[in-house]
Amino acid sequence: MLDGSDPFVRFRNVQKSYDGETLVVKNLNLEIEAGEFVTMLGPSGSGKTTCLMMLAGFETATHGEIELGGSPINNIPPHKRGIGMVFQNYALFPHMTVAENLAFPLKVRKMTPAEVEEKVKRALDMVQMAAFGDRKPAQLSGGQQQRIALARALVFEPELVLMDEPLGALDKQLREHMQYEIKHIHENLGVTVVYVTHDQSEALTMSNRIAVFDDGVIQQLADPVTLYERPENSFVAQFIGENNTMPGVVESVAKGVASVKLDSGDTVKALAINTDGKGSRTSLSVRPERCVVSQKKTAGLSSLKGRLEELIYLGDHVRCRMNVAGNDEFIVKVPNTADHLGLEIGAETYVGWKTDDCRALDFKAG
Amino acid sequence: MDATQPITAADGTPLKKKLAQAMFRSKLRAAGLVAPLLAFVLASFIFPILALMWQGVHNDTFARYMPNLTEELRVWDGVSEPTEEMYALLVADLKQNRADKTIGKVASRVNQELAGTRSLFTSTARKAKKLEPPYKEALIKTKKKWGQLEVWQAMKLTNQSLTPGYYATSLDAVYTVDSGFVMKEEKRQIYTKLFVRTLFISATVMLLCLLLGYPVAYLLATLPLKYSNLLMIMVLLPFWTSLLVRTTAWIAILQSQGVVNDLLVWIGVASDEGRFSLIYNMTGTIVAMTHILLPFMILPLYSVMKTIPPSYMRAARSLGATPTRAFIKVYMPQTVPGIGAGGLLVFILAIGYYITPALVGGQDGQLISNMIAYHMQKSLNWSLAAALGGILLGGVLVLYWAYDRIIGIDNMKLG
């Protein structure tokens, strides 16, 4: 099926419009390798679920091509695509038992009863639900239903599995547990997974690569580390993890480092990642855990004066809300070490960071 | 605290008593709110039904108006020759009936049991004053029939106030003095045939409603809101139109000079002489009833389908099922509660339908309810009407029970 050079899944210039007036998905290009775990992450209405539905075959692309295993699938109906899918509300058939649910895709494929029984048993074992075959879905807890939905999507051994916010309905603890379980199943089976979520920590935990969607466009496609450490625009920086922003104007750019005059009047240096050059507006982005609070200016760091507004004790670290460069929502995470500073509300201190940790990105109002 | 002591409220009274006191007011208020409706239902529904059901097995007309003869008839064995004393008591009662003007009621009652005895009673009562003993000969001289054992057996049966006779008649049997229940001969059976026809027409109407209603309900549940609202109005529109108007509209459409026949003649399916008779027969009843009862099928189906998320069908298709297979294996089983509710509703409404078959049913499109109405209004045999109604009610209850056993009432969903 694969000739080695083609990616397993490919979106080529895909556009989607529901009403002929606005584009929900704008010119999407995405390539997914076999065996990858790719997450589509974004706020609701960003087009991620639409993309997944187009891949599954429940929505048709208005323009462009979707390829699976090197051949276009635009005109193949969903039941012939052989793609496993886990739905947000699990969509377990309520009138069938768990075992019948799992047997459904196998019987559709006209397997022999012995084969069906064997595969159902193996799938139930895989999700540690062997004892629940005779139950109806309504008799299971949310987490158990989730496992069965997962087993059903995998039981007919598809090469591609789509998951549409499968953990959305679970409580926090169970969700984290299931994240690991799905990750391990993916590693063990080697299937390709396309996962949709709006939960960034879920995306970071599980994925090989993450496509951050906003407004129908992939804002950045990268592995979790790159995405967090080196966001390419303000939206990604804001959406993934916590982020402090400071608006300013680029004064000069040299060797990839921009000198930015902040609106408060201070001038700081930052990596010029996504600016329109000299004289343009920019938003500086610094992660809270990369900032250091000190009584004096520290050599080698960009330092600004700040006023401590609020302290929140969180055990392993202390969150400090500060007023820095006119932004009173500036967060600094101070690790709870033995010698941590005697921080006091109202104290005037310096906040510093390395130039490498400060990124000059596209300007976003607000 | 001592373990054996009952738990008390803060003021020292036992907690249970305190709770009962606290609940009493709310219970009283609830009962007060329900009371008017309960009284109304009792007075206008439960009581009349029970009274009518009682009429189906109980008729004391004869015993009440023939007080002298009644005791003698009770002890009579029903096969031996009636005695002179019985004749004498009969004459005494007839005289009294004539004076009280109750002879008509008595005559009608006996006539229900043995046709052709009405005039026997009324004419004899007129002459009763002039009759001289021995009464036996005198009566037989007036009317030969008085010598027949049959007449006396009929009197003995009507004398029995609590009688299974009406139920026997409802099932085309005769209850006799000497040999219990005897089925009527084949060609004189009316009611069983009518019951069977009623069940057949109701089942047909139900199936047609299901076939026609299912796709409409599916569209209603799946179309975008702006289209489904319009469709819903079209489904509900018949509800806002008088039943009579709708039924007579069908007459205009289906009659031999009507729209359908004209069309069939025009396209050449029927010749002008050989127009189809689509109304005033069973076809007319079925067509009109299906149309009128269709919303009762669509609405429960719709309410069930509305709750089935589209993800089930999508899941089935992603698992490899063709659209048809996904529909049959995944969608349809989930609509069973709606099919059951709609089917039961339509069937029970159809089984007691009256106006439509009366207007468009002609001869072979009549239902049992039309016969009940006939006995209520024309023949004035209320007891027989009550017995027929009782059997109908019993039948519905049996169906309901069977439904509960097979599908389960809890599974039913009515909107």
Descriptive overview:
The complex is a heterodimer of chains A (366) and B (415). Chain A has 366 residues and is of the alpha+beta class. Chain A has helices at residues 48-56, 98-108, 113-126, 142-154, 172-189, 200-206, 224-229, 234-239; strands at 9-16, 25-32, 37-41, 63-68, 71-72, 83-86, 160-164, 192-197, 209-214, 217-222, 244-254, 257-262, 267-272, 281-286, 292-294, 302-313, 317-324, 327-335, 348-353, 359-362. Chain A starts with 8 loop residues before the first strand and ends with a strand. The model of chain B has no long low-confidence stretch (mean pLDDT 89). In chain B, strands 1-2 form a two-stranded antiparallel ribbon. With 415 residues, chain B is mainly α. The longest helix of chain B has 43 residues, at 15-57. Chain B has 20 helices and 2 strands. Chain B has 3 domains: 1-47; 61-162, no CATH class; 191-411, MetI-like (MetI-like fold).
Strand order of the largest sheet of chain A: 6-7-8-3-9-10
CATH architecture of the largest domain in chain A: 3-Layer(aba) Sandwich
- Taken as a percent bin, the fraction of beta residues of chain A is 25-35%
What is the N-to-C order of secondary-structure elements of chain B (H for helix, E for strand)?
HHHHHHHHHEEHHHHHHHHHHH
Element layout with pairings:
The complex is a heterodimer of chains A (366) and B (415).
Chain A: E1 9-16, E2 25-32, E3 37-41, H1 48-56, E4 63-68, E5 71-72, E6 83-86, H2 98-108, H3 113-126, H4 142-154, E7 160-164, H5 172-189, E8 192-197, H6 200-206, E9 209-214, E10 217-222, H7 224-229, H8 234-239, E11 244-254, E12 257-262, E13 267-272, E14 281-286, E15 292-294, E16 302-313, E17 317-324, E18 327-335, E19 348-353, E20 359-362
Parallel strand pairs in A: 3-8, 3-9, 6-7, 7-8, 13-20
Antiparallel strand pairs in A: 1-2, 1-4, 4-5, 9-10, 11-12, 11-14, 12-13, 14-20, 15-19, 16-17, 16-19, 17-18
Helix pairs in contact in A: 2-3, 2-4
Chain B: H1 15-57, H2 61-65, H3 67-75, H4 84-100, H5 103-113, H6 118-127, H7 135-142, H8 149-159, H9 165-170, E1 173-176, E2 180-183, H10 191-222, H11 225-236, H12 243-254, H13 259-267, H14 282-306, H15 311-318, H16 323-334, H17 336-351, H18 355-360, H19 368-377, H20 382-406
Antiparallel strand pairs in B: 1-2
